[in-house]
Design goal:
Radius of gyration: 14 Å
Strand content: under 5%
Number of strands: 0
Structural class: mainly alpha
Order of helices and strands: HHH
Helix content: over 70%
Number of helices: 3
Oligomer: single chain
């Protein structure tokens, strides 16, 4: 459970740094997401989740 909270904390740090460094690009990305079809967003989200799971599985072995 400790690893889960560490992972959540790291996600927040990375997202916070990206938002602080590139606020206008984040707005542009959010607008792009707003007009992107739901099915395409689901596919990208699922792909990202599978890749992330693969990385964790590979590293944690």
């Amino acid at each position: 459970m400790k690893d889960f909270f560490v992972a959540v904390g790291l996600v927040l740090v990375i997202e916070g740094l990206i938002l602080a460094a590139f606020p206008s690009r984040i707005r542009d990305a959010l607008e792009t997401m707003r007009v992107t079809p739901d099915q395409q967003l689901r596919l990208v989200g699922l792909l990202a989740a599978v890749i992330g799971l693969g990385v964790v599985w590979w590293i944690r072995g």
